[in-house]
Amino acid sequence: MRSTLLARAVICALLLGAAPLAARAEVAAADPIDAAMRTCLARSDMSSTAGQVQCMETARIGWKSALDNAWQQLQGESPQTRRKQWQKSQASWQASRDADTQLLAAVFATTRGTMYVLAAADMQLQPVRDRALVLRSAAADASSGGQPKAGRSRSGRVRACAADARCEHAMFDMNRYYRRLQAKMPARSRSTLTRAQKAWTAYLNASTPLVDERGRIDIIGARVATLKRLSETVGND
């Protein structure tokens, strides 16, 4: 019971702390899906590991519904050219998420303990939540007829990462945690990491034309957080 309560506290803290900055700015702490999950996690009849996982899975389903609704709105509000860019971004996000599902399975297969069961459920939830918030923000922006302007050059493009010190620093951190995770993973699973990182890179490249420089940092920052958590998790028992 003590380990379950500790794990529950960790998950609650991670819920808002792991989200990208721009995404967090778009959702209040009282968002109904988050509030419902916190209530569920606090229920005595859901205090078992299975109950806690069920709370998070219910939240993941809720955020998936929010994602789908925001996607439909975005498709209806966006000009055709922009709509095609979003379709490419969404397809690459889904491919990256599918690859990461396999990566998470490989990493958490090397762990033992209640906390890691809950952490795995949280890491399945967070990408759906983050993407729902991104699409929700984009749909609202499209509905108002606006597009991100800050952090773009006069041509309307974000600067190359090499010309943006924050981007370079974030990529340095990402590569550092990638190498650390690669070194700690079982040799048989390293190809899973390689595929997941390749899929994520395709997602970043597809999404960069749709965001400003802060948005790009958010995407990279979320990846840094994921790889850091996995590098600190693999092999723990």
UniProtKB/TrEMBL annotation:
Signal peptide: 1-25
Organism of provenance: Paraburkholderia graminis (strain ATCC 700544 / DSM 17151 / LMG 18924 / NCIMB 13744 / C4D1M)
Keywords: Signal
Pfam family membership, one: LprI
Protein name: Lysozyme inhibitor LprI-like N-terminal domain-containing protein
Occurrences of domain Lysozyme inhibitor LprI-like N-terminal (ranges): 42-134, 159-210
Record's keyword annotation contains Signal: yes
